[in-house]
């Protein structure tokens, strides 16, 4: 269910982002689309068919999950809805200014919720909400970092992402605030007596490095291809590491 929802989201986003991706001159490894449609390596029709196939499979597995647990089915259906309409009309969340937050909730809250429900089938652990909030904040910051290089082409194509709506300078501050919020949550864990959260403090140097890179990018007028690769890569690495480091924090 999770895998096909994720694949569906990527393929349908690729399909509906054709126009902005085609005029994007600042594509990085992790932003601006894959480039396969722009370069004509596959057809748009094929991408749409694959997206619809993944949608059907995600729905089937969501129904199966609902048989196992009603809450699992509800979470699956919610994630499918959010993933599809992140890009697809009529809602097009990414163009309406709320897609970034909804995508972060789907990936960083609903996905671990699936694992939690599958294992416990009961009340959520007390740590679940603050952990998911910290992951959601870092994922939200990651999406803002991904949108920064794409902002000029998104604006020209009429794709009103949150970064386009608030402007690049305000998006930078939103990015910094999201990382600060996550770090405050980690420090809160320590003050509450959960000392194993010290593992998460290993991310603070990476956070500082990312903030410095984005500030350099801002000072260079948001036009520095080498920095664009770095900030998108570091944003992804930060989110991935934040998930990985919860394993020793919870189990060692």
Structural class: mainly alpha
The Cα radius of gyration reads 19 Å
- Distance N to C terminus: 30 Å
- Content of β-strand: under 5%
Q: Could you report the average pLDDT, rounded to the nearest whole number?
A: 92
Helicity, as a percent range: over 70%
User: Any low-confidence stretches, pLDDT <50, length ≥5?
Assistant: none
Order of helices and strands: HHHHHHHHHHHH
Largest sheet: none
Total helical elements = 12
**Tally of strands:** 0
The geometry reads as flat
Q: Can you walk me through this structure?
A:
This protein is mainly alpha-helical. The chain is 74% helix and 0% strand. It contains twelve helices and no strands. α4 (70-85) packs antiparallel against α6 and α10 runs antiparallel to α11. The longest helix has 29 residues, at 128-156. The protein is flat and about 50 Å long.
Which features characterize this protein?
252 residues, mainly alpha, 0% strand, flat
Summarize the structure.
By secondary structure, the protein is mainly alpha-helical. It has helices spanning 2-16, 18-22, 44-68, 70-85, 93-96, 99-120, 128-156, 162-166, 168-191, 204-219, 225-244, 246-251.
């Amino acid at each position: 269910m999770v895998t096909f929802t994720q694949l569906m989201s990527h393929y349908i986003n690729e399909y509906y982002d054709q126009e902005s991706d085609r005029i994007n001159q600042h594509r990085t490894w992790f932003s601006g689309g894959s480039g396969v449609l722009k370069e004509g390596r596959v057809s748009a029709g094929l991408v749409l068919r694959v997206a619809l196939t993944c949608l059907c499979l995600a729905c089937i597995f969501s129904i199966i999950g609902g048989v196992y647990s009603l809450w699992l089915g509800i979470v699956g259906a919610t994630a499918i809805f959010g993933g599809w309409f992140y890009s697809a009309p009529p809602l097009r969340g990414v163009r309406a200014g709320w897609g970034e937050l909804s995508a972060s909730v789907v990936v960083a809250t609903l996905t671990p919720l699936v694992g939690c429900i599958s294992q416990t089938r009961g009340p959520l652990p007390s740590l679940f909400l603050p952990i998911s909030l910290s992951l959601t904040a870092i994922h939200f910051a990651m999406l803002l970092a991904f949108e920064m290089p794409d902002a000029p082409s998104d604006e020209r194509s009429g794709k009103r992402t949150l970064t386009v709506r608030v402007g690049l300078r305000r998006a930078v501050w939103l990015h910094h605030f999201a990382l600060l919020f996550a770090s405050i949550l980690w420090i809160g864990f320590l003050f509450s007596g959960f000392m194993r959260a010290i593992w998460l403090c290993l991310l603070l140097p990476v956070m500082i490095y990312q903030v410095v890179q984005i500030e350099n990018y801002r000072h260079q007028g948001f036009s520095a291809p080498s920095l664009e690769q770095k900030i998108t890569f570091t944003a992804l690495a930060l989110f991935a590491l934040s998930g990985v480091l919860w394993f020793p924090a919870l189990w060692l």
